[in-house]
Fold each of these.
Amino acid sequence: MQSFLVIAFMYTIAKESSRFLVSSSREIAAPRHIIFEILTDPTKHPILDGETTVKSFISGERLRLGTKFSMSMKMWAPYHITNTVVEYEENSLIAWRHFFGHRWRYRLEEIDEQHTLVIETFDYSTAKSPFGIKLMGFPEKNLENIRRTLERLAALAENSVSQ
């Protein structure tokens, strides 16, 4: 009976946290290392941003676990934001968060040497106010923005391969 309760509890936690994830994926005709190189270059983020709130790169270096980088943003009014890389696996996974706590995560899965499945996730399970994010309608807006970001990432990566 005790193991059943543990399994039921774990299922409840997994189900609850998945409510706070917004995700989309896209196959990109480029090797993982090329896509990862683009994602770890913070100067490319204004080009990739499907929401167009990232206006310009301010500071930072190639992203690795623990790296901080800053961007000039505009959503209703201009502001600056500093992000910290909180998840990192070379050529496979990168995620960053800022002081509100939610994360932007990219997982890269090799299909073959020239094709990669990229999964982008907006994870607000770690946010300071996940219900505030929900009330503001960000999950729905971010799904469309994620799709545009993946479109831009595909164009940039596939263009890098063809050169």
Amino acid sequence: MRTSSKGIQMLAEGGVLIALALALGLMRPYEFPNGGSISLEMLPLFVFCIRWGFGRGLLACTAFGILQVFVQGAVAYSWVSIILDYIVAFMPLCLCGLGKGKPGGLFWGSALGAFGRFLIHFISGITIYRILAPTEVLGTTFDNPYLYSAVYNGSYIIVDLALCLVIFGLSYRALKKYYLAEDLR
């Protein structure tokens, strides 16, 4: 494939997958009271990152983070929390791109990206949202902001990641060439 054709394909896939991530982010079967929700918004971003790599993935994940503030709306205490929880938190999803072309890269890369997102939300929880402790999460009252942030943010990111990994596992055989970007060679 020629370089200019690859660039056009990358931009087209990026636009479609970012739009799909935004749409999936609006479909939330469960929303937590202080922000965070169960959704599949990470799935298309992981697909883009595994196909196009870390650098281009970083651009796509950053674009998604910026766009979601306007499309999905932001629930935040300050402009710092908007930047941290909506823009910066989605940038580490590009870590999935480190698995590009590697055995099991889609799976461990997705886990790495989700862990990076968790770290950003965790930092936000122990700094900005510290004011909410003590609070109740999942029927337990937390006084420690570190434990509160870990449980609160981990509870929805783990579910989101598990859903992504199940879908990747079920579709891997049929979409292996796509996930491995064999069509781009």
Amino acid sequence: MLLFNKFFLSREIFQTSNNIKRMFYSSFAKKGITGGQALILAFMYGFGKDKDVFQRDIEAEFDIRRSSATSILNGLEKHGYIRRESVTHDARLKKLALTDKALAITEQVVALVDDIDLTLQRYISPDDLKILESTLKKIMKNIEEI
């Protein structure tokens, strides 16, 4: 039973991830979207101001598989938050665009995402945040090497 009194990084990350997901889902359930959908809408809102957004951008930004991105985007499209539009240079390629329905809530979504981030950072010094960022990048690199 000593095993459960020991610090396990994987357990701590798993629990932290679950708690963050719960925070996101409870915050956005009132808007009728999931936490993942909210993050994608916020990304599209910011990133899409300067350039076209494609599914591959979502996959790269959130480090998710194509099937996961397709599922999330299909849900957003089904509920009228995004639309897929053809591009002139490649008929097979579809850019993603926010609809008026999405734009009506996106500023609130971005504000909620910012509030959640501020809550997560509340008692962490700027120096500790830099260390955390560096450490998380190292952990991701370790995972990628497996």
Amino acid sequence: MATPSNTVESISEGGGGSATGCMDSFFDAPGPDHEIVASARALQPLIREHASDGDANRRASDTVMDILHAQGLLHIAVPKRLGGKGANFRTFIDAVAEIGYADGGTAWASALLNVCTWFATLFSEQAQADVFGGGKLSRVCGIFTPPQISERIYDKVSGGVRVTGEWPYASGSAHADWAVLGVKVGENADGSPILGLGLIPMADLSLKDSWFVAGMRASASNTLVANNVFVPDHRIQLFERMGDEDYLREASDEASDYASFIPVAALVLCGAQLGLVRAALDLSREKGAAKNVAYTIYAQARQSPAHQIAIAQAASEADQAYLLLARAAADIDKAASRREKLDRLTRARIRMDTGQTARLCRTAINRLLSFNGASSFADVNPIQRIWRDSEIAGRHAFVMPEIADLIYGRILLGLEEPVQPF
């Protein structure tokens, strides 16, 4: 299938920190690296060939992941100084969408490996040397939440945290060398935990096969397990500091080093869904439109006014989703290129944009299921896998539209108390 002809190729400039600024044009925002996006698009036949097996085996194909790695598509935002592409986050979402057009689970695993590896580049120089030293392009998976037990320790040699526990839903962990994981590093005066992210080699962790789900099966989002694992201080960064864009890495001349941690973490969770909705739309135009409409006078769905309206609405919803996510990427990329921190309102709007993107993609795909009829749910029909993948992806806690609505609405109304600590 060809990439949809209605894909928007450009987006305008970010809107600054005012509520009305969200309507400004984005013409001076950095655009995508078309070469990187094209390389992802060129791999669609290979990815699609392995999609059914990835779904059945509950992990993306090693062959596909190795080729994505070899072409730099698992290190899209990793700075060039560490061997990555050093591309912006508009490129990131566009490339992941191309992968998602062929398979949602592979795209999800790719997106999470990409972004967690980028997280690792924000750590101290010593930590970066551990992960990327000797020219090694490591792959990193990650989970923000802390495990059951984290004990702060100091000995005669070094300080750090010793952790025991589990981290579920570690997407892409089957293909990772390291993990960046939430750890408790202390307590505040009120007894609440001080949280950090710790870099831990996969060799120090075990993997529990726990990912038995209805969709996004190929993401291999299994559970990571630590048993009394020591994480040295130089491989820990406070979550609050990362949320404030106060990174431990040294200053550089690469824009990807200055992107906003929390907005990026939300943005990247929607790239796969853009690809899924585009694939569902094209399958509907190419195959679904030729089917008869049972119990009506219409020999083909394309002749039915109800189907004509439905596909128009789905196509528009897909476009709206992309425009919102591209605007969010433009906000992030523009601030990073200027070495500026994002203001509170823009951060909330990015969260709103990602939640709305997920909502629009799910709505469009469900509309297209009805367009294609009961046969949409046949095992041989790829639309049913697209639907399953989209329904899982759209319910990620960091994308959940209802929470995004709440966060943005409270900020618009001047309420300062955060819904989430970051």
